[in-house]
Amino acid sequence: GAVVSQHPSWVICKSGTSVKIECRSLDFQATTMFWYRQFPKQSLMLMATSNEGSKATYEQGVEKDKFLINHASLTLSTLTVTSAHPEDSSFYICSVYFLAGVGEQYFGPGTRLTVT
Amino acid sequence: QQQVKQSPQSLIVQKGGISIINCAYENTAFDYFPWYQQFPGKGPALLIAIRPDVSEKKEGRFTISFNKSAKQFSLHIMDSQPGDSATYFCAASIGGATNKLIFGTGTLLAVQP
Hints:
The complex is a heterodimer. By secondary structure, chain A is mainly β. Chain A has strands at 4-7, 10-13, 19-25, 32-38, 44-51, 57-58, 67-73, 76-81, 90-98, 104-107, 111-115. In chain A, strands 2, 4, 5, 6, 9, 10 and 11 form a 7-stranded mixed beta sheet that branches. The mean pLDDT of chain A is 92. The mean pLDDT of chain B is 95. In chain B, β4 and β5 (45-50) form a beta hairpin.
């Protein structure tokens, strides 16, 4: 079964507003979660690494003041897109490391953000 | 150095045939190589993963072949089915599955009935 959930699955917002996306690990603790962005017909690009209880680590070129990440508990990380613009429209996906067997990285179902 | 090159970009295979997707890397520090399957509008689903201490891993119809000296790894889908039609991504990381993944560019597979 699924080990990671995301909410909402899709969201439409107006330009200039902020949107919060949740990523939850189901029935296990995740000290580290990853946030990726995927544009249509393109690959996944890592945005940031979310660490429970500390500041997120952002990849080069990702604006940390625009994409706010909060990993306040061992099962929840949130990504807030602030002052959204149409170019922020994308598919946002989180992933977590799940230790079952040898341990693998699993992805959530994704959140489709459309900024009008 | 951090790139993972994936080919082909798209692939058409007849039902029952073998689908082969290849990936190559430069950074010898990579030590975890997973393959993901993604359907439109869905998150990537882990298919199979390999670590460099083995040259091949098989799970059902899916096999990863790993060539450490050539810095290449490939996914073989045996007896391909129309339900396998999806986009496949290879990835790599340093420090195992607990660390960030570098993804290939993806391969769109179409299995014709």
